[in-house]
C-alpha cells in the first residue's frame, strides 16, 4: 500500500472512532413506526372496497 493510502486509511479510522452509532432502540422504533404507517395506509386504501 502506498504512503497516501496509509495516511487516508488512518484519517478515516480516526474519524470513525469519534462517530457515535445510532442506538438499536432508535432504529427499532423507527422501523416499527414505518411498518405501522404502512399497515395504516393499507387499511385506508382498502376501506370500503368490496370483498370478492
Labels describing this entry:
52 residues, mainly alpha
Question: Could you spell the SSE succession in H and E letters?
Answer: HH
Kindly, what is the distance between the CA atoms of the first and last residues, rounded to a whole number of angstroms?
A: 66 Å
Structure class: mainly alpha
Instruction: Tell me the β content.
Output: under 5%
Sheet with most strands:
none
Question: How much helix is in the residues?
Answer: over 70%
Low-confidence stretches: none
**Can you count the helices?**
2
Give the integer mean of the pLDDT values: 79
Give the total of beta strands: 0
Q: What is the radius of gyration computed over CA atoms, rounded to a whole number of angstroms?
A: 23 Å
**How does the overall form come out from the CA principal axes?**
elongated
3D architecture notes:
The protein contains two helices and no strands. It has 52 residues and is mostly helical.
Q: Would you kindly provide a brief summary of this structure?
A:
With 52 residues, the protein is mostly helical. The protein has 2 helices and no strands.
Outline the fold blueprint:
Blueprint: H1 3-18, H2 24-46
